[in-house]
Design brief:
Elements lengths: L1 H22 L3 H10 L4 H8 L13 H14 L14 H13 L6 H17 L3 H13 L6 H17 L3 H14 L5 H13 L3 H15 L8 H13 L3 H14 L3 H13 L3 H13 L6 H13 L3 H13 L7 H13 L3 H14 L4 H12 L3 H14 L5 H14 L3 H11 L6 H25 L1
């Protein structure tokens, strides 16, 4: 943020010098303005106020014009014959300016302001920001014996210099002064004030002013600058006002599409419980390669299953693991297995669940593997999985596992084992009635088998 404003201050500092110099109407200074090729729009707007706010200004002598012209030639030398612009000799310009100041014992306030103005810019160019601010302040101290435009421009330049130097309190005070005397306050000024308030941790002030700046910028159907919307969005998100942040992020996705904005948009939809919109946004972000973190991919997988797209969920998790983004731990492998199961691809669900069960700290996933084997009528492997589940222990739903294990034993005509498993399942109130029915069925099947065996013997 400060780097940005340092560049901007450089531009305004030069504009200030040259725009002020242009009002003195000396050939040497006009030449310097043209040679430097600076944009003095801000200066022109500021000095335009002089037409509305007349001040009786002291006169400036022709001799003084010429002396400042030498300073200007050193600071901004004439263009070379080949059309290139030589660099300014600021050390030499500073020395010349000091000589001008020495000979200025009888200078009036207006003339002193011109000297201080040059000092401010030259010291800035030499990266002596402390002295730059000092002399720009001296310019303002000559008021009301300086043009309104000069006072406005120097005041605004001071705001930016103070902001760049992280002197936020003085920057805010100076900006409020500028706003109080300026006839034209643009959106840039409100944006700058918002940034200053933000740095001072005055979020209410920051939000109030960025809202003004964006509203002004978007007048007549224009689009606010990306950093402005970014600050506005951040302020609403910090106060967890997701409803207000949503239209801002939607604009950013539309006009300044970036991966992070798509991710934030999906997150805000989620906070507002707009799961369909969250899903479609994440899906679009995934398609454009904007989801690069494990949790982002897993969220999309969960939403895909919730929206009845389990195959897509499985492919997302599978690719994420292949790309080393999604960890192949028990939880994520379970998610993969569930997605394949919901997609009715048991052949892929079983190996995924097998790997998940092996990595798990308890036997619950072996219990799920038991259920998958039962689904495909592989009762032998179902029994193996059930036994591993019981051996690993720490089960959340031991009753269901014993119930399914009993069913697998029963299908294999292992009646004693089935009866034992069903009796164990009955200890769990959640499956007691079902387990009791299966127990009676197993006992009848055992009796029938024994009768058939006896008859055959």
């Amino acid at each position: 943020m400060n780097k940005f404003y340092s560049k901007k201050v450089s531009h305004f500092g030069r504009c200030l010098l040259l725009a002020t110099a242009a009002t003195l109407a000396t050939p040497a200074l006009e030449k310097a303005v043209n040679a430097a090729g600076f944009n003095v729009d801000l200066g022109a707007k500021a000095f335009a106020q002089d037409a509305k706010k007349k001040r009786a200004l002291p006169g400036i002598s022709e001799a003084f014009f010429k002396k400042l012209g030498k300073v200007a030639d050193l600071a901004s030398p004439p263009e070379r014959k080949d059309g290139t612009q030589p660099p300014g000799d600021f050390d030499a310009a500073l020395k010349e300016l000091k000589d001008v100041e020495k000979d200025c014992s009888k200078c009036n306030a207006y003339e002193l302001a011109q000297i201080y103005n040059y000092y401010g810019w030259i010291y800035y160019s030499l990266e002596d920001f402390k002295n730059s601010i000092k002399y720009y302040r001296k310019v303002i101290e000559q008021s009301p014996n300086i043009p309104w435009g000069l006072e406005l421009q120097v005041t605004y330049t001071l705001v930016q210099l103070m902001f760049a130097q992280e002197d936020y309190a003085d920057a805010l005070k100076m900006l409020n002064t500028w706003m109080g005397i300026s006839d034209t306050i643009g959106d840039d000024a409100y944006y700058l004030k918002s940034q200053i308030c933000y740095q001072m941790d005055d979020k209410a002030c920051a939000l109030e002013n960025i809202n003004i700046a964006v509203k002004m910028a978007e007048k007549d159907g224009n689009v606010a600058k990306e950093p402005w919307l970014s600050l506005q969005k951040a302020l609403y998100l910090e106060k967890e006002d997701y409803k207000s942040s949503l239209p801002i992020i939607e604009k950013m996705v539309r006009h300044y599409p970036k991966k992070s904005y798509w991710q934030q948009l999906a997150g805000v939809y989620g906070m507002l419980e707009r799961e369909k919109d969250q899903y479609y946004t994440l899906d679009a972000a995934y398609t454009m390669g904007a989801l690069e973190k494990e949790q982002q991919l897993l969220n999309l997988a969960y939403l895909s299953m919730a929206n009845e797209y389990p195959y897509k969920a499985a492919k997302i998790v599978e690719k994420g693991m292949k790309d080393k983004i999604i960890a192949e731990n028990a939880k994520n492998l379970e998610t993969l297995a569930i997605a394949w199961r919901q997609a009715k691809d048991t052949d892929k669900a079983i190996p995924a669940m097998q790997r998940a069960a092996e990595k798990s700290d308890n036997g619950d996933l072996y219990g799920q593997l038991l259920g998958l084997y039962l689904y495909i009528d592989d009762n032998k492997k179902a029994v193996e999985a059930g036994k591993k589940a019981l051996a690993k222990g720490d089960l959340k739903r031991a009753g269901e596992i014993n119930l399914n294990l009993g069913i697998a034993h029963l299908e294999l005509a292992q009646y004693e084992s089935a009866i034992k498993a069903f009796k164990k399942a009955k200890e769990d109130k959640r499956v007691k009635r079902t387990a009791d029915n299966w127990l009676q069925h197993a006992q009848r099947e055992k009796f029938r088998a024994e009768q058939l065996a006896a008859a055959a013997g």
